[in-house]
Amino acid sequence: MKYLNILLLLFVVSTAVRAQSSLLQNPYSRDHISLNGPWHYIADPYENGYYNYRRKAFDEIGNKKGGYYDNLKQNNPMSLIEYDFDHAPTLDVPGDWNSQVEKLELYEGTVWYQRAFVVSPEKGKKYWLYFGAVNYEAHVYLNGKKLGTHKGGFTPFQFEVTDLLHEGDNFIVLKVDNARHQDEVPTVNTDWWNYGGVTRDVLLINTPDSYIQDYQLKLNPANNKEIRGFVKVEGEESEVKVAIPELKVDKAIAVDRNGYASFAIPVKKVVYWSPENPKLYEVQISSSNDMVLDKIGFRTITTEGTDILLNGKSVFLRGISMHEENPFLPGRLRGEGDIKMLFQWAKELNCNFIRLAHYPHDEKALKLADEMGLMVWAEIPVYWTISWENEATYKNAEAQLTDMIVRDKNRASIMIWSVGNETPVSEPRMKFMGGLADKVRSLDDSRLVAAALEVSQKEGEMVWTCDDPLVDKIDLVSFNEYAGWYWLTPSELSKIKFEFDIDKPVFISEFGAGALGGFHSEDRVRWSEEYQEDLYIKQIKLLTEIKQLRGVTPWILVDFRSPRRPHSVYQNFWNRKGLISNTGDKKKAFFILKDYYQKQEEAYKK
Ligand code: GCU
Fold first, then answer.
1. Quick one: which atom of ligand 1 is closest to the CA of 190?
2. How far apart are CA 571 and CA 238, in angstroms?
């Protein structure tokens, strides 16, 4: 089909857009076709494909009598002719535009995407257009009809499109805008690259008319001999079945009038999930004409005083922080191979824990963490100076938090939901972050709540602590501290004493130093690998004096891109705190941390 001027077709849109539908749990296990691959794109810095010259959105004035479209037909058929997808270049989906097109490396604004696809919709089926993530704001059109919009660069969204699909030829147009704004989440300042685009998979999913929409299975936090959960169905269903063949569970459960089937199933011999034995069970959830398969691990994570207990046993979280970026394939991670490489490096470090900073990572990362035995700190990008008093900002943060928990609630590896990072203490911020902590507890009683807070110093002394009032609302005293890099020199660390007057586990969510891989100096000058190595030696000595210490996620596994790091000798827009350089070479500090974790692992085995 000729798309001589696709955007014109957009104006034949019904302005009434449809709501996003509730997320399908485990989309990859559903019947689907992938819409990944090359999509045509048009960069549109002034958004003239969306607004007319009076800055009125075509969506609004569309084909109303006497509206823009009518005028267009009458007196100006040439406008927008420039927006011609057929002759436009392509971008790979999934993938950000910054790393694919040199002139878009620092681009922030709108890019239009378009692709055609062929499908033969079947009667008795429902169809869903599913996006793994689009950074930051998406407007979605199918066959010239506007489906709706989504905000948030790291969480999935979907629209039901059953009634809009054509037999044979169909086409999708997306308006993607990664411009930063103060009132968004994250806000205008972040220490990571603002990768724009369709950065995760696009799927066309089909389900039976009455289908399994959502489900959760977990070990009862208060009774590890009971698996509890729910199945949510849409459509006429009187009962569903939950089967875990290896546990000889095959249970029929009645569906209530709201479509929910809740259950508590006694189980005698469960092998609990752990990093040492990441046991996953085949789970089959079925209704009269739908079936979903999953692999789920069962475990409990709790705190007791200053201890963290995994399956009732004290555990030390030997972690490392990581962004969703690997140096060999610039840009956002594109798939399982990318992710697996980073996780292998973490395993080489003797890690049993990873902090997936500072936003929800790809769903595939959590499934891989389940399989590889890596416990996870998951986080939403409530980062630095958010607009704490803006109600819409709070709603946005809460929606991203909810979508992350809804999407990943069946992943055994996730131990901690984090509601943010380094947010400055104030009354409005306390209300905002406290609300998010409450939201987590209302959605999930089987995981810990945390945030990466900031270290504080007792007046005039070298006694350091974390006296952020948010500590009362979360389960860990979790904070970032950069002694020896942003404050003091490594040799001054021995003057610091940490003191905590709260009976909770202490978790250091960041420490670190920059080093340019391959730059060596006997004098351990700043930016040398030896400086970073020395910092790690002295930080580990300092932190192991904290008797309540139960975990660390040093900053960071690999060097990563940041617009805040322009130093032309040492950085070139890379944050150099990685233990691995952007060429994949391990720096000297890598082996210091690896050794420390080896000793920690042996100590906890005893
Ligand atoms: C902060 C922040 C990170 C940042 C790091 C740094 O603690 O949480 O996102 O990259 O420090 O300064 O390198």
1. 9
2. 61
State the helix-helix crossing angle for 588-605 and 529-543, rounded to 10 degrees. 20
For residue 90, give the nearest of 107, 72, 111 by alpha carbon.
Answer: 111
**DSSP assigned state of 19:** P
Each residue's pLDDT tens digit, 437-451: 999 999 999 999 999
In whole angstroms, what is the distance from residue 9 CA to residue 1 CA? 13
Q: Chain-wide mean pLDDT for the chain?
A: 94
- Domains in the chain (CATH in brackets) are 6-206 (2.60.120.260), 211-298 (2.60.40.10), 303-605 (3.20.20.80)
Q: Quick check: 400 and 358 in contact, CB under 8 A?
A: no
Q: Candidates 189, 191, 466: which one to mutate for ligand 1, based on the most atoms within 8 Å of Cβ?
A: 191
CA 512 to centroid of ligand 1, rounded, Å: 9
In angstroms, the CA 570 to CA 526 distance is 10
Angle between helices 363-372 and 391-408 (to 10 degrees): 40
User: Pocket residues for ligand 1 (CB within 6 Å)?
Assistant: 191, 358, 421-422, 480, 510, 555, 575, 577
pLDDT at 254: 98
Q: Are 133 and 116 in contact (CB under 8 A)?
A: no
Residue nearest to atom 6 of ligand 1 (CA): 191
Which long-range contacts does 391-400 make (Cβ < 8 Å, 24+ apart)? 392/183, 393/183, 393/184, 393/185, 393/432, 394/432, 394/435, 396/151, 396/152, 396/184, 396/185, 397/185, 397/432, 397/436, 398/435, 398/436, 398/439, 399/152, 399/155, 400/152, 400/154, 400/155, 400/185, 400/360
Cα 165 to averaged position of ligand 1 atoms, centre (Å): 45
Mean pLDDT (whole number) for 59-77: 55
583, containing H or E segment: none
Task: Tell how far the Cα of 295 is from the centroid of ligand 1, in angstroms.
Answer: 34
Digit-coded pLDDT (tens) for 373-394 = 999 999 999 999 999 999 999 9
pLDDT of amino acid 1: 41
pLDDT of residue 20: 81
